[in-house]
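> @MW can you paste both from yesterday?
MW: sure, first one:
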Amino acid sequence: MNRIAHILSWVLSPILIPTYAVFAALWITPLAMLPADIRWNVVIVTALVTCVLPAFAIMLLYWMKIISDPGLNNRTERLAPYVLTILCYCACAWYLYSIHSKEALFAYAEELSERYGVSCTPFVGDMGNENTVDNLFSFIPDLDILINNAGISYVGLLSEMSAADWKKVMATNVDSVFYTSRRAIPLMLRKQCGRIINISSVWGNVGASMEAAYSASKGAVNSFTKALAKELAPSHIQVNAIACGVMDTDMNRCFSAEDMEALRQEIPCDRIGDPAEAAGMVRSLLSAPEYLTGQIITLDGGWT
């Protein structure tokens, strides 16, 4: 956000500094020496630029919390969603990661860069691997927001699940959150602000038959979220999680049409969740008050 202040200063300084000089000269030079037809035009325009524009800039910065009351500096609790769009255009770098769909990942990164004019770096790797995460963060000098979205599931009887499958689920769903958070926290502590959002599941709240490993991993994410929020709250870093219900994502492609219809009938909203709704909830958390931390926000259409 400080970059926005710098940009505004770069824009306004070339205007304000010479104008203040002219305004001072008007006080020194008798107005009577100016031609009558331009005398008051000069005074009015000068006053407009020297008074109204700075006042407007200060009000804008105050509202965006770039300038704020003592105790509110370096916080972003009043940022409205459309201010985030302004940040994308002004000064923002995004880092996207995925272990699959390399072509789709790079295409999406290019689309975001073209649409918003931001630096968008795609990274292919397993976030459940410590060395992979360390390598990713070696390219990240600064960080405001961390969104942990990596996740896989295993559907089947626990008695038939191999140790390798168990470890894979835990590495992807739990270890990745630990590795990325551990590397992100020092970057956020330097500025005494930041937001960590973990994408979880309602199965982490209530558990699911045939998905014991997945339920256990998401329950761990929920507990991790609550504990880390308490640890980082004094440093003005928010940590929250979104417990999603049944969403129209690739993870649920393993279920038949009949299974999905049976799930739909159990949901009070009478439909499967749209991934865009989960994205909207992430955006809401990014603009939420700092006091909202350590929460597991359930997004399931009233299902659980």
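MW: second:
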Amino acid sequence: MTVTRPRYADPHVCPDCRSVLPPAPAQCPTCGLPLQGGLATQLFETLSAADALLIRLRESAPTPSEAAVGGPVPGQSPVSVPPPASVPPPPLPAATTPRRGFSGASVPKILLTLGALCLLVAAVIFLAVAWSWLGVGG
């Protein structure tokens, strides 16, 4: 009796939410996962490799008679499962640092303040020059 087992690389099922996909989708209609492009292709290839490894592991599993005896048949080497390869985690998205400096709204305020200050200085200079030229009686 053959037992159907789920595949990891199933082109008809979303790899994230496991919902059924329409033909040739650009993204999963349920969870919105993008299903086209280099990263999606790489994921499908990785899941296909996992399926192939799972098939090899099932083939090397002991038969029920070996499991009842408590080990492999003499003359057969035991199956050793290597530890999982250390895969570095994917890089985190770049953290946005808080902006330092002037915000967009403060630039007009600074320019307006500088303009008012220049106008005030010009008025004081004009009054000083006009006062000395015209005198007190003007």
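> thanks! The radius of gyration is 38 Å.
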